[in-house]
Write a structure and sequence with these properties.
The protein is an alpha+beta fold and about 375 residues long. It folds into two domains: about 1-185, Transmembrane di-heme cytochromes, Chain C (Fumarate Reductase Cytochrome B subunit, Up-down Bundle), CATH 1.20.950; about 220-380, Lipocalin (Beta Barrel). The protein has helices spanning about 10-35, 40-70, 85-115, 140-175, 190-215, 275-280, and strands spanning about 1-5, 70-75, 120, 125-130, 220-235, 235-240, 245-250, 260-265, 270, 295-305, 310-320, 320-335, 335-345, 365-380. The strands form three sheets. An eight-stranded antiparallel beta barrel has the order 5-7-8-10-11-12-13-14. Strands 1-2 form a two-stranded parallel sheet. Strands 3-4 form a two-stranded antiparallel ribbon. It is elongated, with a radius of gyration of 30 Å. The structure holds protoporphyrin IX containing FE (HEM).
């Protein structure tokens, strides 16, 4: 068994202590903050993904730390401290170790059983598996129970941490002993700075190398697409379809800010079930396919609404006009393909469509519903 050198903790034990301490304090603060936000607030979604990544990092570091603790004896206890205080300190330390595991494990079970079924992709890079939980019938209740447990355990951890920090400060400032100092990094030692530099280099190198080597099977890329519209023509719903469309999309649930959708529609491909209007749709007054052969939508922001639904904002260009629009888009799994669907209304007056021949809505309504769907597949690994 290794032994920490001298009367202080070894550098590795000190690293583990402070890295995990900072991560846990951050997780407690962010955890309490994010759960105060509205359920559908995109910031809550974003913070929860970071929270899961840092939380799992604590779990991995805690496993390594426990292994280190078992194989490396801590420095001997100070004989100036009474036995009863030692006992309380030891109990607190083992309770802290327990919660260091209980919190991330309960979080892991909570998200594994959650009906929202949102993937856990550590820092957007490493696919962290969810627990299988095959035999569990009522996953929703299990998730809710562990949510409560996670909350309860986090409050217990806050109280224990306050006691732990209070005791360390008392030793340092009132008893003036070495209890806190022996766990502080040895800032005057070259060896300490050498190890820290090595650790920072390893973390920086892996953050550069990992994105290159990781396969991302969670990115959805677009396949076949359809764009249609419904307009009110003399009180009847009239359907138009663009038969030539293409969508380029990359949608990643865990990285919605980095996701994007670009849809292109060849305006000359327009057909309609209403023969009366079909012939004039390509004309200059309507889609003006000669001057504007392409209509386009380009997303500027995609935000989480719920599992299976996102809110898309972007620029729609029809003829000479570009306008920002926002609409909900669903993502539903159908026959091994994930189908994206959405619809939004446009006012044809804003895009100068049909304003020469129909500048009122007696014959053709101003509001036109545009509907789209496109298939997505997981990006090839
Ligand atoms: C040491 C590690 C962790 C700490 C200290 C921690 C702490 C917290 C805290 C304080 C909250 C707020 C509880 C409340 O008052 O409602 C919270 C919520 C949450 N935690 Fe953790 N957590 C940790 C690890 C994890 C892990 C590993 C996961 C999942 C992989 C996770 C998933 C969640 C989720 C999903 C919520 C929010 C639930 C909601 O939106 O209502 N946590 N956490």
């Amino acid at each position: 068994m290794g032994r920490s050198p001298g009367l202080r903790y070894g550098d590795t034990a000190v690293f583990f202590h402070w890295i995990i301490a900072f991560l846990i304090i951050g997780l407690l603060a962010v955890g309490k903050f994010m759960t105060q936000l509205e359920e559908n607030d995109p910031l809550r979604f974003e913070l929860t993904q970071w929270h899961k990544s840092f939380g799992i990092s604590v779990l991995v570091l805690s496993v390594l730390r426990i292994f280190w603790r078992i194989t490396h004896k801590p420095p001997p206890e100070l004989d100036t401290i009474p036995a009863w205080q030692q006992k309380i300190a030891n109990t607190t330390h083992w309770l802290l170790y327990g919660l260091m595991f209980a919190l991330p494990v309960s979080g892991w079970i909570m998200v594994s059983a959650s009906p929202l079924n949102i993937d856990t992709i550590l820092f957007g890079l490493v696919d962290w598996p969810h627990l299988p939980l095959h035999g569990v019938d009522d996953k929703e209740s299990l998730s809710a129970a562990f949510h409560e447990y996670h909350e309860w355990a986090s409050t217990a951890l806050i109280l224990l941490l306050l006691a732990h920090i209070g005791a360390a400060l008392k030793h340092h400032f009132i008893d003036k002993d070495t209890v806190l100092r022996r766990m502080l990094p040895e800032l005057s030692s070259k060896r300490f700075w050498g190890k820290l530099a090595l650790l920072i280099t390893l973390v920086a190198a892996s953050s550069i190398v990992l994105p290159w080597v990781m396969h991302d099977g969670h990115k959805l890329v677009a396949g076949d697409s359809e764009v249609s519209f419904i307009a009110d023509v003399t009180g009847e719903e009239t359907l138009g379809i663009f038969t030539e469309t293409s969508v380029t999309a990359e949608i990643e649930k865990s990285n919605l800010p980095g996701s994007s959708i670009v849809a292109r529609v060849q305006t000359a491909s327009v057909v309609s079930d209403n023969d009366q209007v079909a012939g004039s749709l390509p004309d200059a007054d309507w889609f003006d396919v000669e001057s504007y052969p392409e209509a386009m939508f380009q997303s500027t922001a995609i935000e989480f609404v719920s599992d299976g639904e996102v809110s898309v904002t972007g620029d729609l260009t029809l003829k000479a006009t570009t306008q920002s629009i926002t609409f909900p888009m669903t993502l539903a799994e159908e026959d091994e393909v994930i189908v994206a669907r959405g619809e939004f209304a446009v006012d044809r007056r804003e895009y100068d469509i049909g304003m020469q021949s129909q500048d009122n809505d007696d014959f053709v309504g101003f509001n036109v519903i545009i509907k789209f769907r496109f298939d997505t597949k997981r990006a090839a690994e």
